[in-house]
Amino acid sequence: MTPLAFSRSVAIALLRFAIWIAPQDTHDWGRGMLSELNHVEGNWSALIWSLGSAGVLAKHAVLAVILPGSHRRTVSTASELFEKEIPMRKATLAVIASCVAASLLFFLAPTFRQAFRVSLAQWHDIFHVRFDIDGQKSDPELQALARRAEQNHDAEGLAFVAARQPNKAEAIRLADEAVRLDSNLTWIYAVVAVQWSFFPELDRWVPALQRFDQTNALSYLITAEKIDIDQVGGKKIPRSMEEEPVAWKDAMEAAFRSGKLDTYSSQLKELDRRVLLRYRIDNPFQALDRHYWYGVPSYAVWDSYRYAKSLIEAADTLEAQGDPKPAREIYLSVARFGQLSGPDGGFFIGREAKEACKRLATLSEKDGNKTEASFYTSLADQFDKKAEMQRASWRSRSRGGSSVPHWNAFLVRVSGFLVLFCSGILVICTLGVVVRSRSMDFSSFRPSPLTLGLAFASAIGTLLSSAVLFVTYWPYSQLLQRFLRTSDDIHLSELSAFLGDTQLPLGSEFSQAGSWYVGTWNVVFFFWFAVTVLCAFALLIAFVRHFRTRPRTSAAA
Fold first, then answer.
1. Final residue in a domain of this structure, among 24, 51, 74
2. What is the pLDDT of residues 77-107, one digit of tens each?
3. Roughly how many angstroms between the first and final C-alpha of the chain, as a whole number?
4. pLDDT digits over 465-523, tens only?
5. Which pTM value belongs to this model?
6. Distance between CA 356 and CA 374 in Å, rounded?
7. What's the structural domain count of the chain?
8. Which range of residues forms the domain containing residue 249?
9. Whole-number Å distance between alpha carbons of 492 and 66
10. Number of helices and strands (H, E) in the chain?
11. Are residues 146 and 50 in the same domain?
């Protein structure tokens, strides 16, 4: 069977099915349409004829179900049937207009506008495909805020942008300007330095940080990371601790002897809140841009582990040589640094800190101090509990399959997609009616049953999707407002998990690639592949229709 003959067979089967489900009083009209189908020229034209007739019969079938008494009188002519179609068409158009108006009213609510903006975040990676992994492209919204802050000589506003600026050179410039205006913001150097790791200004920034906060280990970890990157760039990677340069060992020793490890997360959070309120920024992604940021250099994790391990080995040697006092001091420094690192950073050296506590407990037992030995034993158990809690937290973040924020984010993405999809169908239907009417006179608009049905379903879908989007996002908007008003950050982790998932393209969570990053790029690739295939198919159809409908020249000369 050729494709054209197949389309006529589908048209006949479709119209017969419509007659079968239609009310009894429309059967004569349906059979008449079926007879007329045999006289329609062209198989594709026959299919379109069948779709229009089946749409009319289907609408009467639906009306008979909703209003059983509306089809008691037999309809024998086409004119009677279409007379009944007129009030149905008017009612359908009224429902469509009401749904569209109600959907537009949602945009009057600031919460819905914010929710709609959040739902659009899933399209960013699809329509902004980037291959510059260095992140040198600036954010227009941040650029505008930076200009306003510079005009107002607002140091906090400049620091806010510097902490989020995806362009390294601009982030460095804004951080320098912020500190120049207010030296109390010197800590912003650490935030930017941890983000970018290596740049010439670090030689000036690190001493400034050490003068600003002398007991903080963070500046020494930044120094150690810079030395690491220099070694990688020069291809002089040390194979053992003995090959490490003296400057690196001095930096790590100073870090382990420091009184605290402050990543300035609390200072940054308070600064963010003040700037968000000052400039009335309603973008939730800007508000919580760095909530999951651990605040320590990436190399510092490995450096801390290696250095702690070397210290324990050195202390073991001293203890074996019968010199427990300096060994105890070394064990104490490792255990104390593990506590300073907190639940996130401490996880990476938790095993070494636990071993240090066990050895301290053993030394205390040898000295006959059972109370001290019990204290160090309980401290070692705490490192185990913190590590397990951190692993559970990471597993929850990576899976997210049963978490409420994960599924709410999925619902927001689906709702936002349906709002766009249904609105697009409505626009296409409207344009189709306008083009077919050949005038802008509303009285001449005669939408086909298929167009009217699509518009009706799309209007209902737009309204329902808008309502679901608003209701789903409302609790999270309240969490954000509570943080801005009262600095209550108890539920910020839940809000951050929700916002993080809303930025993933729809479908990326179902990727089997094993990585959210790979899953995202799989969705991007398949999306544009599908678009390309559909465009090629549309061009093929247009090409075939052109050659089928073009006038043929006479063969006679």
1. 74
2. 545 544 555 555 667 777 888 888 999 999 9
3. 36
4. 999 999 999 999 998 888 888 877 777 778 888 888 888 877 665 544 444 444 555 66
5. 0.70
6. 14
7. 2
8. 140-399
9. 48
10. 24, 0
11. no
